[in-house]
Amino acid sequence: MHRFTFVLLLSLLLNSAMGQAPKVLIVNAHPDDESGVAVTVYKITQELGGIVDLAVITNGEAGYKYSILAEKIYGHPLTQEAVGRKYLPKIRKKELRAGCNWVGVRKIIHFNQLDTHYTLDADTVLQSVWTVQKIRQQLTQRLTKEKYDYIFCLLPTEETHGHHKAATILALETVKDFKGKPPVILGVSTGTKTDTTQKIFTGLEKYPVTSLRQNSSPAFQIDRTVSFGHKNRLNYKIVANWLIAEHKSQGTMQTFMNQGDYENFWYFDINKPERKEETRLFFEKLGKTPFVK
Fold first, then answer.
1. Alpha-carbon distance 180 to 147, whole Å?
2. Structural domains in the chain, sorted by start
3. Which helix H or strand E contains 108, and what residues bound it?
């Protein structure tokens, strides 16, 4: 065995044995939402030897409008609504698995809820589209069985898709009511180096569980632009781009999802204040992990 490989494997085994390797669950509404945290996931699984699972609430069948470039690939006129809704669930599950394999996601849990249409309204989704109690029950079962350290979900800002908001609200409610030791739950957003304004978000007024009044700015950050490799010509944005490239049925992914320089993490108020330092140390370690060949 190559010495580098032996040292790496020994390090991963020691981390796991000492309980240092993190265990994370991502809760998303659609296949492809995981791209916003691609580099963090890669660093956790490939450089810290941790475990990341992904819970996806819908199959993303409402994404048919952006499938024109994939029609020749998959042999169906996917931009026709009836056709897209028929074939996209299977297509998008396959694309998701390919992207998740690249960043090291262990398991994908599909909840197979309806992806009806684009909306900014979370209320409609929670009250009349998804079977909310079943989703929360399934999430609770996952938390009980797997004992995750962290949950990642999308930051539920006002301008965010209502399905994204709804998925995060359900994850937060599940953590809030969890009877065991709850994981730390973090909201994820991306940012660029050209954005000079400090983003402030305090939560959704109608959903107090989303409160960020005590932590209204990102608490932690992973820099996708960190360089490595020969003459430092590579950086971690490649990781995000390769994952995004698997989602060929969603053409707009290439135009905006790969522009982020940072993956930002927000510490929801429902988390215990004393666990913020523990989380800070986790991200500090994550930020220092070297690229693993």
1. 9
2. 23-288 (3.40.50.10320)
3. strand 107-113
Q: From CA 7, how far away is CA 2, in angstroms rounded?
A: 9
| pLDDT tens digits, one per residue of 24-46 | 999 999 999 999 999 999 999 99
Angstrom distance (rounded) from CA 232 to CA 173: 43
pLDDT tens-digit series, residues 91-145: 999 999 999 999 999 999 999 999 999 999 999 999 999 999 999 999 999 999 9
Task: Identify the burial level of 200 via C-beta atoms within 10 angstroms of its C-beta, where 0-12 means exposed, 13-18 middle and 19 or more buried.
Answer: exposed
Q: Residues 6 or more apart from 221 whose CB is under 8 A from it?
A: 262, 263, 264, 265, 283
Give the single-character DSSP code of 266: E
pTM, full prediction: 0.91
